[in-house]
Amino acid sequence: MSNAEIFTARINEYVSQFGTENVMDVDGVLSVAKMTEKRGIILPTDYCYNRYNNGLGEFDGPHLFEYTDDKRFRVLGENYPYTGNVMHKPKGEPEYVWAHWINGKLYKGESGNMSESILLRRNDLKESLEGALKSIPVTVTVENKKVLINFQELLICGVSVEDETYQIYNVSSDWEEKTTYRCEENGDGSWYYYLETIDECIGECKRFVAFEVQKINKNAEPTTKREHTSELSKVFDRDTFEKTYRLFLEQADENVVSGSGSGGQTPKGFDKKPNCDGANVSTHYGMGNASKTPYLCWWVVSIYYLPDSGNIIMGIEEDRYPHLKEMKIKPLRYSRIGNKKIDTAVFYSTTKESIDYGELHENFINVCEEVMRLGLN
To answer: Cα 330–332–334 angle (5° rounding)?
Structure first.
């Protein structure tokens, strides 16, 4: 073992015996680590949660101590849920905040002009929005006290985390007419408004982003509509699809209330499972208990519904189709859906509130016909 590994192991052992309330100087640290002969080689300042030196590279540990104002060391050990600033003082320059810890998670590159309360609320909001928007192809990033939501290169909206409120900004005039909150207009034609709680903010962002992404998709350059000649497109035409999927959603929502996985594999709207190109269209609601991700499928193509969030996602589970990488239609992303244990190639996503049945049907038929073209084996 290296000196660093031995030192780390002995400090961790000390913490396991005596806890994290002990503060000592350099000699005390080296003494409890039984490495007094390594003074000048082992530098406790290199193992602090709250100090960064250029020589530490990526600052990826191990971290063992908190450096105190009186130049001593609080012995914390590895993986401590530390919260506080990481200070850096370049030679000949003033000291500044280089990064922050929050409950043992490190956030690098912060400017240091935020209170700990705002930083904590900003990071909570970012992580919450990432979860709430995971079915929509957007990215969530931070910039100082702002959380930014982008669709491709386009800023959909931002949230500025203030001392006691959340300001949602860059809102469109279309949304100003739909939201129940009072908006104020900026000079550039966009709108903004304030919310008091993080839950209100997450809900508003989720609804607004879904609204804007749907609007962007509808205004995109139209693609040449394919002529569908498959048996699937004939049996599962647009009107039949809408009727079937509406009834599927109705049954799935009923199952959430009852806790039952009832509904069977025959889609509502059909007397029997429709046979399409040798395989049946079927609906799945769970085995006994209601599934968290009920779905309608044909062969390997599934349209999942997540009742808890209202998200609707069309995709192919990665391990179910050997020609997935060969498809001309490329997925938007790969992600875990609901309680699935493997990644799903996502080709389309929407929400129950924003569903366009014609658009969903067209995407479903396109992907299914691509599967027909490549075959299943």
So the answer is: 100
pTM for this predicted structure:
0.46
- Tens digits of per-residue pLDDT, 77-95? 999 999 888 888 887 778 7
Q: Which of 35-49, 52-66, 290-304 has the lowest mean pLDDT?
A: 52-66
pLDDT of residue 109: 62
Closest Cα partner for 129 from 243, 66, 18, 205?
205
Backbone CA torsion sign across 109, 115, 120, 126: negative
pLDDT for the residue numbered 222: 47
The answer to whether residue 223 scores a pLDDT higher than 50 is: no
Structural domains in the chain plus CATH codes: 3-108 (no CATH), 123-219 (3.90.1150.20), 231-374 (3.30.920)
